[in-house]
Structure formats: C-alpha cells, structure tokens
Amino acid sequence: MVLTGINYNSTRSHKARFNVQLSKNIVTLLGVSAFILMIAGSALVFIGWPIGWTLIGLTVVPAMIIEWKHGELKDLIPTKEVNSIDDILDGDVLGRLSRSPTPYEIATVIGQVYGGHFFAARFGIGSGFLQEISSKEKIDTSTVWKEALSIQDKTKTKTLSAGVVLAALIQVYPKHDSLLAHLQLSMDDIFSGIKWQNHIDNIIEEYKKPRLTGGIGRDWSFGWIPNLSSFGQNISEYTSPLKLESHNDSLDKLIDMLSGTGDRNNAVIVGPNGTGKTEIVHAFAARLMDAKADVPSNIKFHQVFLLDASSLISAAPGRGELEGLINDLMNEVYRAKNIIICLDNAQLFFEEGVGSVDLSNLLVPILEAGSMPIILTMDDQRYLQISQNNSLIASTLNRISISQTSRDETIAIMQDKLAHFEFHHGVTYMYQSLTESYRLGERYVHDLAMPGRAIKLLESAAEYAEDGLVTANSVQEAIEQTVGVKVSVASTDDDRKNY
Amino acid sequence: MVYYSSNGYNEAMFLVGILSWWYGRGWNDRISIIVQRIYSTSDYFSVGRLLMTLFSPYRQISAGSASGSIDAKMRQMVDQLVSRLIGAFVRAFMIILGLVVLFLHIIVGSIVLLLWLIIPLFPVFGLLLSVVGWVPKWF
After folding, report:
1. Which of A30, A32, B68, B115 could form a disulfide with A62 if both were Cys (CB 3.0 to 4.6 A apart)?
2. Residue in A closest to B47 by C-alpha
3. Do the Cβ atoms of A216 and B125 come within 8 Å?
C-alpha cells in the first residue's frame, strides 16, 4: 500500500492535536487548579458546606488530563495497522500540521519541534534552510511522505520522526548534494544524524527503566576486602547502563573466558593505546552489575577492581614489601570470592624499569592456577616483548586482541562521549566537528589509536568553541594550536602571510 | 454533523480519548508500574539471593578449612557455625523486612488499581454528596 496523505480526522491525529494544545503552561495551570479545587473543597467540607464535595470531585478532571498527557499523548505510539501517514508520523509534528499541509508548512513545523532543534544545533540545518528548499505546492507533499517512508525504512526508525521528515525534505530537493556540501555534509551524514537521535532516544528510555543491581544483601556472602578497598579502584561502583558502540565481540569473549568455561580463568586485552581496552573492562563491570543482562551466574554481580601499578609501587617501594602487598591483595581476592582483578597497563608488573617492577614469579603461578579471575590490559608492542622474554606468560594468558575502530564506530563512540564533554565544558558539539576530528585525528595525531585520537582532539576542540558551539573550525584550530600545522583554508591576507 | 473547534478537534473526541485510555492502556501501564515496583523492592532487599545463601558464613568470616589438631579443627568448626548463625540471623531479618515491604507494596498497589477504576466517577460522587448534604461532624 502506498501511503501519501494524512487522515486529519483519525483518532491519532486528534490526540496529537490535543497534545499540542496541552502545552507546558496549560499543564501547569491544570496542576494548580487541581490543587486549588482540592484545598477549597476540603475547606468548605470542613466548615460544613456540602458544596465542597463537588469541588473535591472535580479535582480529578485536571488531574486525569495531566495523567493522560504524560501517559499517552506525550509519546503517541504508532497505530498497529498503518493506513495513512498520520498512523506513523511523530505526534509532535502531526499535531501541528493543517488538513492539507504543503512541504513549506511541514518545514516550518519541523523547525518548531525537538527533532528539528536537534538538527539545527548539531548540523546547522534550521527552519529557514528547510523553508528555502521546500515547495509551497500541496501537490508536492505526497513526494515528501513517500521519501520519508523510504528513509524511515533505511534508518530503521520506529516512526516518521521529525529527523526522518527533515531528511525527506532535503532529499526531494533536486540540488541537495551541492547544498549540503556548503555545510560540509552529505545525505549519509543526515541519515547518520537520524540514527544518532534514535540512539539518544534509546539511551533516555534505558535510563528511565529501573536498574536492578542485586540490592543491599548482594555481597553478604562474600569476604571483607580492606586492603583491596584501599589500593584498588572498584569500577563496578561507578557503572552506567551505557552499551559499547564497538568491540562487543571482545566483551562477549571476556565474559566467556572469565565465567570459567575455559581452563584458565584469565584474559589479557591487547591493543594499541587509545583503542578502548579499559573501556571494555568498564563495560564488562557494568554488564556484571546488571541483573537483567545475560551473564553466567558464577560471575554475576562480581565486582571488578582496577589495580594501578604506580600507586602499588609507591605504597610499597621495597621489593619484598611490594610482593608482600600483592600477596595480601591476592589472598583477599581469593577469600572474597566475588572479585575480579584488573591489572591496567599490566606490562608494568612484568618488566623491570622506571615505575615498573617484574612480579612474574608471583603472578604467573596465580595465573597458571586459574582459580582467581584476572584481567590484564596491555599495549600490543609491550605484550610481544614480554611474550618473547617469558614465553610462559603468553601460554598462560587468554588473549583478546583489540583493533582500531572504523570511521562509523569512532563517530558513534564520540557521540556517546559528547554528553559528558558538553556538560563538562558547557558547549554544544556540531556533527561536523565529529567528522573533522576523525579526519584530522587520523592525519595528525599519532600517539594514540582510533577512537582515542579522535576523542582527544574532540575534547581539546571545546577550548575553541565559537559562541558555545564546537564546529569543524574549532577542531581545525585545536590541531593548529597543538600540532602547529595550518589545516584550515586561509581566509584573509594576514592568514596567507602567516603560513 | 461533526463539530470542530477552531483548533481542529471536537470535544467529544477528547472525552472518548481520555476515557478509552484511562480504562485501556492507562490501566495496563499502572499494573506494569506496580509490578515493576514490586520487582525493584524484591531486588533492593535481595530477597532471592539471601534465601539462596541463608546459611552461608556471613562475609566469609571463618570460611575455609583448617588442618592440624582435633582441637584446632573443632575451634574452626565452631567459628564457622557461629558465622553461619550470624549470617542466617541477619539474612532472615532482612528477608522478613523485605517481605513486609513487599506486602505493603502489594496492598497499596491494589488500592491504587481499585481507585484508578473509580476516579472518573469522583465528580458524580462529589455532586451526589453535595445534593444529599452530608458533611462530617468535627465537633
């Protein structure tokens, strides 16, 4: 069936319009009136006037409307049987459209809703831009809907969201490629933006769900860990329900290895710096703490402790002291029965040097015994060196190799990091800054692998935000200041003279 | 003929919409919220886990095996027994507390569900009480 129009009189259309009418101010007014009716009614009943009962009874009318707004109208779900566009069009767009909207009117409405604001802030595609490219003929609207349905299918979006309709409005414009090029964008970037917005919506949905983490009696059957609490960092305490954007296979492998299904209960995560080795351990800790996650029962709710080599060495400077401390810590771990140790930058425990100490004689027997779950993270070059020097280590450890992330994966990871950066620096990142960070990071940052190098550049670009907005230019400026290479186009004579 | 206001909807649709939601999806959502709350409470008090580990030593104190004389073994056994008894006492207390809170949640949830059904009739009840003229006597 080809869907090309809106049924203005459908139940869903009516509900969408009710939702728009019930604005924030109206809802506040309803709340206040419910409160006043309740107080006034109670007071009247108290002084013996029966009319107060009517007022008390009427309290439920505004209260019910508010409940309906939050329970259904705010997030109208699509109709099961789709017969026309209004059955799947987002409620906030549908509720603002007239009986026979033109593409121009649709563009105007997109500029008023959250999805439109998202694209205006992140991509620089505002209402004015959309209005300029949209037709004012009603006959062209069906083409927009047809295109929107195709984009919805392509981006696997549940509804015809504002982002999907925005993409359709751009797609139907004949010269969209050259127009988007001015904004350093392509149609693929717009589709990526739709997926980004869907991802944010999913994260918000996840956060709304209550988290089940085992409760207050979870650890009562496990031992005390006084030393480990002082020298280690319990990363399970700070887990968030966020999912990894890449390396999911590695995470599954890690769970498999540490759940004891193999002979050796350990894993070494090997990869260049910046690939996200520690991130995998954090995701692993979060997975173990999630009651709903599919994790073998023998490691469910186990806590992951990060041991930092440098703090251990500084706490016990003498050789004998350090070995004694490590021994005590391992004993605690063994007795507690719910701890997984992670030796971050584990090469520092296997070689002699400044800030490192060779504890192979102590650690290898523990790893060989396999009775204590241990995770090690190591730089790939150092792992090779250590393996060559001591082949027993390599044969004892289960290796998980981590490679650099692809462009799409890196951008998805950066999108997840943005919430933290934006809150921390008080800025808003545009999508173009992400793609530029990837491009310039790959070219000029060599001390880290992807996604670390792009993330590092992205964060440093916050310092060069323009009016609170981090753009592609901010990223260019960041690289110019740190690397000292001119990457942006010289726009003035002064620029040309300087470079 | 269907009457539409200037906002493009009719008032009858509003009433039908709100009532059909109230006794349909709204009611189901309310049940889901209550069930979810019961799950969360059960998780908070670790009822299932504590029941499974009711007689485990508390915090692994005196866990493990002792070798040596019979005297040492006996002392270790007594220590373990005390640890397990303390564990069972603390866990049983928490399980009972959890069950009491769960029971309260079920009672309150059931009252909310019943109230949900009659809330739309409150204006009618209020009007009837006003007409009858009954008010509580405070003094």
Report:
1. A30
2. A217
3. no
Backbone angles phi, psi at A339, to 5 degrees: -115, 140
Domain that holds residue A61: 11-204
Residues A186 and A77 both lie in one domain = yes
Minimal CA separation from A236 to chain B, in Å? 17
* Candidates B63, B91, B123; nearest CB to A220: B91
C-beta of residue A231 within 8 angstroms of C-beta of residue A325: yes
Question: Measured between alpha carbons, how far is A474 from A180 in angstroms, rounded to an integer?
Answer: 20
Contact state of A71 with B8 under an 8 Å Cβ cutoff = no
Residues A223 and A269 in one domain: yes
The answer to whether residues A338 and B49 touch, using CB atoms and an 8 Å cutoff, is no
Neighbours of A7 (CB within 10 A): 14
Number of structural domains chain A divides into:
3
Q: Which of A180, A204, A228 is the last residue of a domain?
A: A204
Contact list in A for residue B139 (CB cut-off 8 A) is: none
Size of interface A-B (CB pairs under 8 A): 142
ipTM of the complex: 0.83
Same domain as A356, residue A223: yes
Beta-sheet pairing, A232-234 with A266-270: unpaired
Q: Is the pLDDT of residue B62 over 70?
A: no
| Yes or no, beta carbons of B22 and A53 under 8 Å apart | no
Q: Which of A344, A373, A401 is the last residue of a domain?
A: A401
Which residue spans within A110-256 are E strands per DSSP? 232-234
- Chain A residues whose beta carbon lies within 8 Å of the beta carbon of residue B22: 64, 68
B56/A50 Cβ within 8 A: no
Residues A45 and A172 in one domain: yes
Give the distance from residue A164's alpha carbon to the nearest chain B alpha carbon, in angstroms.
Answer: 25
Q: Is the pLDDT of residue A336 over 90?
A: no
* pTM (two decimals): 0.84
CA separation for the pair A107, B29 (Å, rounded): 35
Could you identify the residue written with the tokens 């073994």?
A: B73
Q: What pLDDT, in 10s, does the model give residues A75-113?
A: 999 998 888 999 999 999 999 999 999 999 999 999 999
Please report, for residues A241, B36, B92, B99, B104, the alpha-carbon distance to residue B96 in angstroms, rounded to integers and kept in the order given: 30, 20, 6, 5, 12
Residues A272 and A418 in one domain: no
Whole-angstrom distance, CA of residue A147 vs CA of residue A69:
31
Max mean pLDDT among A147-161, A303-317, B49-63 falls in: A147-161
User: What's the CATH number where A344 sits?
Assistant: 3.40.50.300
Q: Answer yes or no: do A237 and A384 share one domain.
A: yes
